[in-house]
């Protein structure tokens, strides 16, 4: 599956154009809107692959792409918000405890312990969020209902299946490998630019894995098009 995911983007005659657009948007991700557009494209990858479409989507219908990307962005934001809050509270309590203790060794130790426990809990929750989010996005992509992304009654069988866990590990390994390459290239100015393109390419491969796995588990039927007005509403 990893080999197929890496080759997926190249299954289109326009793959170079798609790759360049995605890379530029990833390079400008600090501006938020480009990130939303990339997320919108990844949602198209999910929809296409879960229905067995072997040809990757293109960047077009930018309005629909932005709306879809915004919904996907919100779903991911909600899942990763809880770990961020936990870590933030732990750090705040740790600092506040140290200050209240007047800078004593005991107060400093207590504050550090609270911050450490909070960081560990936050790390576990972050891994959990990273594990759940692709399934949540896939459920939304299939139904076009944002509520489906938080329907744990539907998500639970997927999340506890060996097939999804294996796909997640494949995707995680692929993304880590891409991150290492990007990190090494990022040491130079030109490499920093190239890393954005590598990240985009890796994300497409990752969401190919999730979309394909979701389609195999849900037996999602192929449709002629995926225009939002032809899918169910919230």
Overview of the structural elements:
The protein has 234 residues and is mainly α. The protein has one domain (2-230). It is 76% helix and 0% strand. The chain has 8 helices and no strands. The chain has helices at residues 2-8, 15-27, 33-50, 62-100, 105-143, 152-159, 162-185, 189-218. Helix 1 (2-8) packs across helix 8 and helix 5 packs across helix 6. The longest helix is centred in the middle third of the chain and has 39 residues, at 62-100. It is globular, with a radius of gyration of 20 Å. The chain crosses the membrane at residues 20-42, 77-100, 106-132, 165-185, 191-210. Pfam families: DUF4013. Keywords: Membrane, Transmembrane, Transmembrane helix. InterPro entries: DUF4013. This is DUF4013 domain-containing protein.
Radius of gyration: 20 Å
Give the strand tally: 0
Provide mean pLDDT, rounded.
85
Strand content: under 5%
Structural class of the secondary structure composition? mainly alpha
Whole-number tally of structural domains = 1
Secondary structure tally, helices: 8
- Uncertain segments: 221-234
The share of residues in helices is over 70%
Distance between the termini: 33 Å
**How would a crystallographer describe the biggest sheet?**
none
In N-to-C order, the SSE pattern is HHHHHHHH
* Global outline: globular
């Amino acid at each position: 599956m990893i080999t197929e995911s890496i080759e997926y983007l190249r299954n289109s005659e326009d793959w170079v154009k798609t790759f360049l657009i995605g890379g530029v948007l990833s390079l400008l991700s600090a501006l938020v809107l480009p990130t939303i557009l990339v997320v919108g494209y990844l949602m198209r990858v999910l929809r296409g692959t879960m229905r067995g479409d072997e040809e990757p989507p293109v960047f077009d219908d930018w309005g629909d792409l932005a709306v879809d990307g915004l919904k996907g962005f919100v779903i991911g934001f909600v899942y990763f918000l809880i770990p961020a809050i936990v870590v933030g509270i732990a750090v705040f309590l740790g600092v506040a405890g140290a200050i209240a203790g007047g800078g004593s060794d005991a107060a400093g130790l207590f504050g550090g312990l609270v911050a450490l426990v909070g960081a560990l809990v936050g790390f576990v929750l972050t891994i959990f969020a990273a594990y759940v989010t692709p399934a949540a996005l896939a459920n939304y992509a299939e139904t076009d209902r944002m509520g489906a992304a938080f329907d744990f009654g539907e998500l639970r069988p997927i999340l506890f299946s060996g097939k999804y866990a294996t796909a997640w590990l494949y995707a995680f390994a692929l993304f880590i490998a891409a991150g290492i390459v990007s990190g090494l290239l990022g040491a130079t100015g030109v490499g920093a630019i190239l890393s954005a393109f590598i990240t985009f390419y890796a994300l497409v491969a990752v969401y190919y894995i999730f979309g394909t796995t979701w389609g195999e588990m849900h037996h999602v039927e192929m449709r002629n098009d995926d225009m939002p007005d032809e899918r169910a509403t919230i």
